[in-house]
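Why run this: before we spend reagent on co-expression, it is cheaper to look at a predicted model of the complex and decide which construct boundaries make sense. The entries below are exactly what would go into the expression plan.
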Amino acid sequence: MPKRPAIPGRLLRPARDKQLARTESLAGTESLAGSEQFARTEPATPTEPTTRTEPTTPTEPTTRTEPTTPTESTTRTEPTTRTEPTTRTEPTTRTEPTTRTEPTTRTEPTTRTEPTTRPESAAKVEPPSLAFSVPLAAAGAAAAGTGTTGIPAPVTAGTKVPGRSASATGAGWDLMWSELGVLFRRRRTWAMLVALAMIPILIALAVKLTSRVPSGRGPAFLDRIAENGLFAAVTGLIVSIPLFLPLTVGVVAGDTVAGEAGLGTLRYLLAAPAGRVRLLLVKYTGAVVFCITATLTVAAAGMAIGAVLFRVGPVTLLSGDTIGVPESILRVLSIAAYVTVSLLGLSAVGLFLSTLTDVPVGAMAATVVTAVVSEVMDAIPQLDWLHPWLLSHFWLDFADLLRQPLSWESFGNNALLQAAYVAVFGALAYGRFATKDVLA
Amino acid sequence: MTGETAIHTTGLSKRFGHQLAVDGLNLSVPVGSVFGFLGPNGSGKTTTIRMLLGLASASSGSISVLGREMPNGLHDVLPRVGALVEGPAFYPFLSGAANLHRLDTANRLASARTRRDRVNHALERVGLSHAAHKKVKAYSLGMKQRLGIANALLSPRELLVLDEPTNGLDPQGTREVRHLIRSLAAGGTTVFVSSHLLAEVEQICSHVAVMRTGRLVAQGTLAELRRNGARRVRIVTPDPGIAAEVLIRLGLLPTPEPPEGTDAVLTAMLPAESPVGGNYDGGNGAVSGDRDANDRGSSGPVSDDSITGGSSTKDTAGWGASTMLPESVAEALVRSDVRLRGFAVVVGSLEDRFVALTGEGFDVDQ
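The model came back. Tokens follow.
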């Protein structure tokens, strides 16, 4: 998988979250908040250390530094600019995470008393330091690991199966419902959803089973899962984006038309007559519903396993603000929405490729390859003029959704790009399919 | 013309690359007929059907189905057309009933309210009710074929296009399908059946068209096609020598056949009404219908009479016509004191006719 060195920084600047889960002594510490933080960063290690094998913390920072470019760190200060991975500062922050990890050793908390309400100023300062940069390699490896290993887990509530609606709202919609029925009655679809659900579950289990996660290693937010289970969902999504989601979406989108042609049912649908444009729209809608279901599966499985294995509490955003659990869930869902939107362009590409062949596997493979090529090109600096046009360019750009105030700008950019892909490849698919001789 | 034809094509052609898969087809399927569409493998039958159903576009020519120009009237026409094209195709992971539900939803004019009943009824008609909830991947070929026919029967249809409907069926299934087609035809549905099973076509079809390498080589009622086939007189007599002389005098060529008991058997070909490959050839679709001998040209064949029974013209202008009538042959034999112990006119089987039209051998024509 293509790893973009930049990614880590981009997204993962989690706020130095003070896990405020414990609301206990908010009051007292507030005043200290700002100072405390800084204080906490380095000194922190010494203090808590006892429990936490700090030694690790010091070492990592050094390793971590490479990917990022030092220069940017300056920009880093404002939460809004997402682009550059911050660097240097992290080491300091990095330490915090360690502190954070204690939550496991819940006992101490009393001392901690993180101010839930961090003064804004403090927040500003810190952001740069957030360094949950994820060496992508690590992420990839983790992903691969999770994918292969199979721990049986129930598909979580997130996967909703549009059932066949007895109360069809009209003949026009019947085919739509039927399409979803066929899609979700396939064992293959369920297998893919289960596999996707396994990703956050395996991540969470790994975190649970290892005594502690060295901060800053592994996928973004990995080290925060232990203190707040909701992060299992976020980490799961991040890990799924580069490969797993495109893979499953490629299978579904590549199968849309070519699958029917391969089975021979395409000729019966068209002779029914389904109408070529209508069929194309229904097929694309089916792929979109799968995208939604897939991302919700990951998010829901992540939140569910997080809630089961870890504590769930208020979340500190990248901007330093803390939000309650209900809103946190909304944030996770908004990330899922972002990821879903990210997959719409790929779905359209798959739909188009699917009209070119009667061999579904070919269309599926071509779709996945398209995603991979896009990611690879996005990782090549020499092609940076091309990057903004790449299908996958904004795939990991959802850090804005973890800031306060919520900024939809990156969401909009991504949606715009994806809409362009949908328009172009939708038109190509139409052009191809409307006049195609169905001979299979 | 379109008023009374369920399917009508004019100069219909389909080209795949260099190859002309269908070449200037003028097909005319009367409403209410059971129309057998014959031809060897690769002769363009299925391609024609695809074009009729709007699955493939015609390279040239026009199509009208149920009175509507085809590519344009597709959405209005196809709901009234049931089709089985190139074998059944289903979602193997769904049950038979679920497959029919699925395909029925594709038809925008099909009511969701009656869907369940229609599916059940269609399954019943093809004898699949007991397997309705079995996954299709567990179906045998014959069951899939039945399900395919059930799909064609989901809605009330004015036209059924069935491509090889009895493929894969056991003899009993074949009979059932034949019966089904007859009952549908009796109900006024036009049935367009493509097949290479001549016996089947002979039993159920009222009209026939024969294709060869993309061209229509014959079209008309079954009786007309048969009549154009070779007819022979078969003579059983103890006097083969005299009989042969008489036949030769009549211009016929006697051929000895294995004797029956003590009697010799001779057969002789009667001149065909229209020589093989003559009027019936060349894709000029509107051959049949009225066969006025005057239009027939100089070959001057005679329409026959009692045997196939339906010909209009008996008094023909052709030379020696009267001598060629079977009764004339019999009369000449008796006058020459041949002891006729058996006299029969043997009509060539449809198979003979089919082979005559489409050629022998296993080579698939290109």
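The longest strand of chain A covers residues 315-316. The radius of gyration of chain A is 23 Å. Bring this page to Monday's planning discussion.
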